[in-house]
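During the reporting period the student researcher (J.K.) took over the structure-prediction task from the postdoctoral fellow and processed the backlog of single-chain submissions. One of the processed entries is reproduced below for the supervisory committee.
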Amino acid sequence: MLPVRSRVLAFLVLVAAAHAQAKAFRLAGIFGDHMVLPAGHANVFGFGPPGAAVTLTQPGGGDAKATIGADGRFRCQVATGKGPGPCELKARCGDAEVVLRDVLIGEVWLGSGQSNMEMPVGDIGWWKTGVLNWQQETAAATFPQIRLFTVANAIAAAPAADVTGTWSICSPDTVKGFSASAYFFGRELHQRLQVPVGLVASSWGGTVCEAWTSSAGLRTFPEFQGALKELAARANETPQSREERLAAYWQQVASKDVGDDGFEPCTLPHLWSKAGVDFDGIAFYRCEVDIPAAWAGTDLVLELPPIDDMDTVWLGGKKVGGREQGTAWAEPRVYPIPGHNVTAGKTTLKIRVLDTGGEGGINGEGVLLRPAVAWGEGRLLKGFSWRRGAALRDLPAFPSDQMGNPNVASVLWNGMIAPLVPFSFAGAIWYQGESNRGRHEQYAKLFPAMIQDWRRAFGTPLPFYFVQIAPFHYGDGALETPLVRNAQAAALSLPQTGMVVTMDIGDPKDIHPRDKQSVGKRLALQALAKTYGKDVACDGPVCTGVVAEGGVLKVQFASKGGPKAGEQVLQGFEIAGDDGVFVPASAIGNGNEVVVRSAKVTAPIQVRYGWHEDAPATLVDAAGLPAVPFVRTANR
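J.K. obtained the following structure tokens:
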């Protein structure tokens, strides 16, 4: 037998080990109090000591068991019953126990994409100005059986282990900052199906489709292999070494451009292309600032508009902030200035801007210096001047930092979707495409590949319903937008997909149209009809054929409700003859047919509808659903 001292030490080691095990064991971040679990069965997964046994008390009754693998992960299918709850889910591993309370049983959907999926219900500042009637919508958003989860933005070089987020009960407070498209979708499902609905929003504004696709899903796209190879090389790089690379680069930039001569007056916003400047590289901006005596020694805040691409900022010769990685070209800046750097009197604000391609400059006029505390008035800074510095060709190559760029192939899949696998989602909704404009041929292949990639990863034929991008005046080529809309429609060749058309609810002046109620409802109609088997119209009129007859084109349509009947004059139609030159045309609806003609085209052979970035398009069916844009040649 061991001596008493040794037995005590051994006991303490066992206790410590038990505590370590208790600390290590946890469920994945997607599981939490107030969540919704899918009805019937659900995949539950998490982390813990390799080889340890896990027991889960099932909401549907009885226990389920799993063993933690060598990678420190486990997954187990549990019986959840029919619901609706509330109930508890208990998970035990040794002495550790996790209890999830107020769990509902129902339908859980994943919402993803870029800013039009990210756009919240309420006005929370910047471009997130809220949906139509957002005050009334938020005030009415008391739905205890709708639960909300927002995945925190995250970039990863390889599939991440987990996500960050918290489940909340839908209320006026919680819905204000939640995805509007997802909320209105979920609200419609909840009201129609009368079951609890869980909504998981995983979106990031301004992002491209390939960033949401895994490296495996991109294997047939040679154009992304270089970025994926570089990403893999950076996967094991430490934050310290990454910072060292960037610091070395900025030291080289500083040595290339010195001096304060040659400044010329300018007015903000100051985008170089609009100022007639064809330039990529470094530029400097400055203005004189008079700091009041009352601000001396006080913590201040400097607010700047978005800067394209990167910036470094000095006040009185002291660096006060900077976004020195290439990911924040659309983001306003907010830089705190400690009081020990604040001296009363005249000083100079200086901003170095680095543009590595495309547009460059300061995209806004509001440069504000204010006290950090809620008193006094801020100073809106005026009187800026600028000068060009070193051209991009004379600078060292910017050190690629894929870990800081959300628009690199696979990084958002790795950081924001892969950690959700294998959660048992009922399906996915998607609103993206604006950032892939100009690459329509690629998108027609890339988008379906992403859908198939998600289905492979989740191991289910995940229903996938998406939004065709809305009318907006981009001003960079009238056909870019209709071509990418057409590319989006290519995904309809996949089973269990559906497309929401938004030609009637866009805003040519706002890339974030505020009518997200219609978007959410139309997405829900797709799900109700195609996933839940409800007898509802979900697709607007679709062109099925065109016949040339007596100098006019007769366009046939099909939809569940049929095109809106009657002698209705329609907008958005154009026709062309053998020369391929399209001209606006008169269009009259007549039952399931639209008769299109123009005095300028005596022998038309082609017709197109809604084929401009912001064209008016008024053809709807009896249910009010808009027609799908198209271009078609008449049968000969």
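The committee noted the following: Confidence is low (pLDDT under 50) at residues 1-22.
J.K. will present the remaining backlog at the next meeting.
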